[in-house]
Amino acid sequence: MKRRNFLKACVIGGATITLGKTNKGWAAGSFEGYPDAMGVLVDTTRCIGCRSCEAACNKEQQLAPPAESFEDKSVFQEERRPDSTHYTVVNEFEKKEPQGPVYRKVQCNHCNEPACLTSCFVNAYTKTKEGAVIYNSKVCVGCRNCMIACPFNVPGYSYESVTNPVVKKCILCYDTRLKVGKPPACVEICPQEALTFGHRADLVKLAHERIRMNPESYYDHVYGEKELGGTSWLYLSRTSFDKIGFDTTMGNEPIISNVKEFLGMVPMVLSIWPALFSGIHLLSKGKHDEQGEHHDTTQEDR
Amino acid sequence: MPSYKPLILSALILSVTASFPMAASCLSAPDTIILNQGGKLFQPFEFNHAKHIQTIKECADCHHHTTGTLPPNPKCAKCHANSSPTSVVSCKGCHSATPFSPETLSEKSNAKERYHMDKMGLKGAMHQSCISCHQKLSAGPTGCQECHERSAAGKALYYTGKVADKSSKKHH
Q1: What is the ipTM of this complex?
Q2: CA of B159: which chain A residue's CA is closest?
Q3: What is the pLDDT of residue A14?
Q4: The whole model's pTM is what?
Q5: Is the CB of residue A159 less than 8 Å from the CB of residue A172?
Q6: Is there a domain that residue A161 lies in?
Q7: Has residue A243 got a pLDDT over 60?
Q8: Local confidence band at A289 (pLDDT 50, 70, 90 cut-offs)
Q9: Which of B100, B104, B134, B160 to mutate to test the interface with A (most CBs of A within 10 A)?
Q10: Is there a domain that residue A277 lies in?
């Protein structure tokens, strides 16, 4: 009887924890970004592939010198991704199109509901009210969960650091610029104003207005407006986004919505399951012993 | 001698007007303009305004509705069909040099009635105007250093020089 009571308590306790956590999970999944969050609209129809943004980022974030100069166009031969010494890279697409190639800048998109933040078990990541997704490298333990979690393959890892390798990525120039209202270094240097800095809400309107006024120049979609719950960086393109390196299969649900039920279960599993299954094991062991004896006798009968 | 001066002047003006009838309203336009005057990464350079007037002939191609004939674009003509030339026609008179500063952004968000919410900054307007036209006509410079040379600070930022030398050796 005592054992039965213990099991009851386990089930009730587990259910309470699960429900509590699930509710919290739901609340986090409906966050649509801070009202005053800033953002950047990338108009890929304006970009000329000069790589000035890469150069400005390198200086502002005090990154290691590049292997080639920033005026070297041979880097466009292969598609690059951001890493620990390049927080932003420009890639070339549609190389053989008569109207010329399309250049697309890649960096952290600063999601409204960042998967990196969700995946980080030391809480190194923060989504600031200005819209930036920043991280505290002092608490980063280098587990690289965020690199796996990020749907855009953005965070890089300082493999070159032997003593203290940490995750590195674009922080929207939060420390040096965004915090005091200044645009990120890449936006400021862009000669073509392919990058427009402003309140995210205004940029969404602006992007749709550009499409409305010049429907012949744009594909009718603003990438990042709704993708994965929305991102601070938004993109415009002349062609469908899958042709210029975007993943268009991700849907509009933030990553956390896919994992919140599982994550809600984790505390329950860790605290209740060991006791619960020990109980079940003990119970079944008792029964098994009885059955075992019975089994043995039947075999003997044969 | 002094009595001839007005004569010579008027003859000059007449000849200019005769050779560029379309540009009659641009008479006070400067022949050359020093662009990129506050440039830190690229050096200032001389823009040959006279040559552009001669080849394009249409002021409104660059100056929108502020001078020359009215804009041919039907979208602009909706409002600017009867616009008179404005007192300020220079690019920097309308396009802000700091389009993303907190001041410009708050001014923009306070101007609820404004139509041109997507007005470009000075640097963006100049580069887009120049490069897109040069590409369209397949004439004129489209590369960075064809117009303005990098300054020492610019060379350092782009890692040209030392790094570039190394990479060119690698290719050989």
Answers
A1: 0.79
A2: A69
A3: 52
A4: 0.79
A5: no
A6: yes
A7: yes
A8: low
A9: B100
A10: no
Q: Does the residue B128 lie in any domain?
A: no
Q: Which domain holds residue B16?
A: 1-29
Residue A41, domain extent: 29-256
- How many structural domains is chain A composed of? 1
pLDDT at position A27, please?
47
pLDDT tens digits, A109-164: 999 999 999 999 999 999 999 999 999 989 998 899 999 999 999 999 988 888 88
Q: Taking CB atoms and an 8 Å limit, are A192 and B124 in contact across chains?
A: yes
Domain count, chain B: 1
The CA distance from B81 to A257, in Å, is: 53
Nearest CA to CA, how far is A103 from chain B (Å)? 15
For B87-108, what is the mean pLDDT? 91
Q: Does A249 fall in a domain? A: yes
Rounded Cα distance between A51 and A293, Å, is 78
Q: What is the pLDDT of residue A102?
A: 97
Query: What CATH number did the domain enclosing A156 receive?
Result: 3.30.70.20
Q: Give the chain B residue nearest A213 (alpha carbons).
A: B75
Q: Band of the pLDDT at B14, cuts 50, 70, 90? A: very low
- What's the confidence (pLDDT) of residue A251? 85
Q: Tell me: the pLDDT tens digits for A159-182?
A: 888 888 889 999 999 999 999 999
DSSP-assigned letters across all residues of chain A:
-HHHHHHHHHHHHHHHHHHHHHHHHHHHHT----TT-EEEEEETTT-----HHHHHHHHHTTPPPPSS-TT-GGGGGS----BTTBS-EEEEE-TT-TT--EEEEE----BSS-HHHHH-TT--EEE-TTS-EEE-TTT-----HHHHH-TT---EE-TT-SS---EE---TTTTTTGGGTPPPHHHHH-TT--EEEEEHHHHHHHHHHHHHH-TTTS-S--BTSSGGG-BSEEEE-SS-GGGGT----S-SS-HHHHHHHHHHHHHHHHHHHHHHHHHHHHHHHHHHHHHHHHHHHHHHH-
Q: Which residues of chain B approach chain A closer than 8 Å at the C-beta? A: 41, 75, 99-102, 105, 108-109, 117-118, 120-121, 123-125, 127-128, 131, 135, 142, 144, 157-161, 163-164, 167
